[in-house]
Write a structure and sequence with these properties.
By secondary structure, the chain is an alpha/beta fold. The chain has a single domain, classed as Rossmann fold (3-Layer(aba) Sandwich). The protein contains seven helices and seven strands. The strands form two sheets. The protein has a five-stranded parallel sheet with strand order 2-1-3-6-7, with helices on both faces. A two-stranded antiparallel sheet has the order 4-5. Strand 4 and strand 5 form a beta hairpin. The mean pLDDT is about 85.
């Protein structure tokens, strides 16, 4: 008897707070497209009670086949020590060379441009003390994803799709993940080192 092919596992990054309804629709769409969705918010990642939330989320990144990261102006409360869970998931997905896709909220892109232009008269950086309004860590995440530290001509895998509303996200999710032949091609590609 042949073994049934397992569904492709896609992890949706753990950016949750203030975003639950939209996250639920993204997860539902990916389920409809036939994926096994790993999402901390939906309780579909394995939770080892002996590990931290961060470690459980990083284990989910290791388990997934694909990673969908979402960068929003507010990073949430998922912070362990000095580490933000969402950012650590992003770094781990890239480090493990998981095929990844990123959505970035328009306000993050705008704030990055704005903060790069604004300085105090003294030349000091502007400090935001209340991160319920905007968490500057989201800009750091965005710059990491677009590989801002690498010259533009040498960047690969640095696409971050800007969105403002849920329908913007759904168009991107559907366009990227509805074609299973494309996804299988991405999964079967090898990098320059043959890995």
């Amino acid at each position: 008897m042949s073994k049934k092919k397992e569904k492709i596992k896609i992890m949706v990054g753990s950016t949750v707070y203030g975003f639950e309804d939209q996250l639920s629709q993204i997860v539902a769409q990916l389920n409809t497209l036939g994926y096994d969705v790993l999402s901390s918010h939906h309780g579909t990642i394995k939770v080892n009670p002996k590990l931290s939330n961060l470690d459980n989320c990083l284990n989910a990144v290791a388990e997934c086949d694909l990673f969908l990261g979402i960068i929003r102006p507010y990073c949430g409360t998922g912070v362990i020590g000095e580490k933000n869970i969402t950012f650590e998931e992003i770094k781990e997905a890239i480090r493990l060379k998981k095929p990844y896709w990123f959505l970035v909220h328009r306000d993050v892109v705008f704030a990055r441009l704005l903060f790069n232009k604004m300085k105090l008269k003294s030349g000091d950086e502007i400090v935001i003390s209340d991160n319920r309004f905007f968490d500057k860590l989201s800009i750091e995440m965005y710059e990491f994803v677009i590989k801002n530290h690498i010259p533009v001509t040498l960047r690969n895998g640095n696409w971050a799709q800007e969105f403002f509303r849920l329908d913007d996200m759904m168009v991107y999710v559907t366009a990227q993940f509805s074609d299973k032949d494309f996804i299988n091609e991405v999964l079967n590609q090898t990098d320059n080192n043959g890995k």
